[in-house]
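Today's session is about reading a structure prediction critically. Students often jump straight to the picture, but the first step is always the sequence itself: look for stretches that repeat, for charged clusters, for runs of hydrophobic residues. Only then move on to the predicted structure, which in these notes is written as discrete structure tokens rather than atom positions. Here is the chain we will use throughout the hour.
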Amino acid sequence: MLQPLRVPEPNAVRVRRIERQVFFSPELILRQRFNDLGGENFFGPLQRGLTGKAWYFKNAALCYNSTLRQAFEIHGEIYKKWVELGGLAWGVPSTDELGTPDGVGRFNHFNDNSASIYWTPSTGAMAVWGDIRKKVGCTRLGAFAPRLSDHR
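Below is the predicted structure for this chain, in token form.
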């Protein structure tokens, strides 16, 4: 069981300075995000992970995005689709799971917002990336969800 991390001040991260450059600890950022979301009460028990990139749970993952220097969560049907597509090899999340503008579906963006996985009750989870995503635009994909399946 992961114990809550005690951080001396809000949003504090451990840093080390080398030649005036600041390096953030991915492990500390993952642990802080884990704690912020409720730890095992939210994710359940850890299945595998505790690497610098991702922690895996039964139906969720917490992943570190090195470009944004943040940790993002994926869960439920979106998580299952992400695993089916190849997990981190397919995409690194760049958002937490969010609601679609129409309030019906859910989504996560990946690869610095160049790919997405959308879920609606009527379609299930589907991945959209490449030319289709560029043409439609990520903010309008929710309206097209009933007519899409995995597209690139």
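Discussion point for the tutorial: Residues 15-147 form one domain.
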